[in-house]
């Protein structure tokens, strides 16, 4: 079984579920492609969705890549490059390009591919007992360059070096202390904490949230030669929301001392 990435809808919430039974949700090549397609679908689906939760099926988030597939492509440079540049980065870029707020709900193991996917999310809630790592040096290979840059940027270079160079495994409390995880919960309180976090996101102005994501992405990508033109165009239009109904409603609700109706 190659595993699957499921998309489930619950009102304004979408759940993207990494599912690979018996393999702690390890990512297969098919799952990377499905991750790309699911996020492309969500990005193009309009404004009904206000929050996306990425979670693992069962007790784990994601144990990394599906090592059982590796013999088929890892030992040839061209096929290895295609795997990372097309399959893996295609999935990760689709998450990064999504304008909808994305929450990673992390329980159990979050290794390798799991920490890369979590790094693409905007907010990360982890169980205190969750385990984070990227012990791929034990398998004899490094992290691909764009994936390493992503993890180092979000988790911090010192943490990335520790995960990669000593195969360290850090728990949820430690990753919270280091700033990678914004929200921490005890195992028994995890789903209640997730619900409260999602409700805080859903209650806010959805177009403002999307604009914030586009701005933050453009500020980063203005230094990327391949994405610079689009990033500068986004920044140039930063105030086009001025006449928007959502903008008017938020200000009016504050002045009238009532809850906004977004």
TrEMBL record:
CDD domains per the UniProt record, alphabetical: crotonase-like (cd06558)
InterPro entries, A to Z: ClpP/crotonase-like_dom_sf, Enoyl-CoA_hyd/isom_CS, Enoyl-CoA_hydra/iso, Enoyl-CoA_hydra_C
GO molecular function, one term: lyase activity
Signal peptide span: none
Biological-process GO terms, alphabetical: fatty acid beta-oxidation
Keywords: Isomerase, Lyase
Family: Belongs to the enoyl-CoA hydratase/isomerase family.
Protein name per Swiss-Prot or TrEMBL: Enoyl-CoA hydratase/isomerase family protein
